[in-house]
Design a protein that fits this description.
Layout lengths: L1 H20 L3 E2 L6 E2 L4 E2 L4 E2 L4 E3 L3 E2 L4 E2 L4 E3 L2 E2 L4 E2 L3 E3 L2 E2 L4 E2 L4 E2 L4 E2 L4 E4 L2 E3 L2 E2 L4 E4 L2 E3 L1 E3 L4 E2 L4 E3 L9 E3 L4 E2 L4 E3 L2 E3 L4 E2 L4 E2 L8 E2 L11 H13 L2
Parallel strand pairs: 1-4, 2-5, 3-6, 4-7, 5-8, 6-9, 7-10, 8-11, 9-12, 10-13, 11-14, 12-15, 13-16, 14-17, 15-18, 16-19, 17-20, 18-21, 19-22, 21-24, 22-25, 23-26, 24-27, 25-28, 26-29, 28-30
Length: about 230
């Protein structure tokens, strides 16, 4: 058993040495697993605990930090991926991903896209310069260039039986905590107000707001809290 593990370790290190000879920079080799099928460009910097598998290619001068997993992905030049998992994705150049993002099969990111923390993208194309900063799900969608997603947005793609697509035009602004109920189309330079649930299309340059009207009941909050405390304390 010991000899078997020595052989496995020798093969792992041999792959890393090959990439080092081609100009790849390893900040440490602990936990770095790179399959022989993987291609990496010169000047790319890889931290410990990175896994690269399958038909994966990484361009020049990229940065992959610890915890990153790429499987069957292509990555352009000068892209930074921080502690994120990507499967079956095509990622452009100058892209920033993570930390803790999840790209699922069918994802295509254009150049200079920003995908932030706790973002999941699946079976979607995202155009150049678009920002999906945090806590957002984009599934089965076609997103244009230079779109901005606020925090907590969801493309609601599944009706319980079928998947549907959303289409979002160039330079659209999707406010925080917005739900886009597919199939729906948001036009170019359209603005979705925060907290809206969008069920109908929005024209180019349009402004959509879909919220229930707020009603305040004076004193009701204090009465409810007083009753709750009395019940809790017996």
């Amino acid at each position: 058993m010991e000899e078997m593990w020595k052989e496995i370790e020798a093969k792992r290190l041999a792959v890393l040495e090959k990439h080092m000879a081609n100009g790849v920079i390893f900040e440490g080799v602990d936990g770095v697993v790179i399959e022989e099928s993987v291609a990496i460009g010169a000047g790319t910097r890889i931290s410990p605990n990175v896994t690269l598998r399958g038909d994966t290619s990484v361009g020049k001068e990229c940065v992959l930090t610890g915890g990153t997993v790429l499987e069957n992905c292509s990555v352009g030049d000068r892209t930074v991926i921080r502690s994120s998992e990507c499967f079956g994705a095509r990622i452009g150049s100058g892209v920033s991903i993570g930390p803790f993002a999840h790209l699922r099969p069918g994802t295509v990111l254009g150049d200079r896209v920003h995908v932030g923390n706790f973002v999941e993208i699946k079976n979607s194309s995202v155009g150049e310069g678009t920002a999906v900063a945090h806590l957002t799900y984009v599934g089965d969608s076609d997103v244009g260039r230079h779109v901005n997603f606020g925090c907590g947005c969801v493309t609601v793609n599944y009706d319980g039986e079928h998947k549907h697509r959303c289409r979002i035009g160039d330079y659209a602004f999707i406010g925080c905590n917005a739900n886009l109920i597919a199939p729906v189309e948001v036009g170019e330079q359209a603005f979705i107000a925060a907290g809206s649930t969008i069920t109908d299309g929005v024209e180019d340059g349009g402004f959509a707001i879909a919220r229930a009207r707020q009603v305040n009941k004076p004193g009701l909050g204090a009465r409810k809290l007083t009753a709750y405390v009395r019940k809790k304390n017996g």
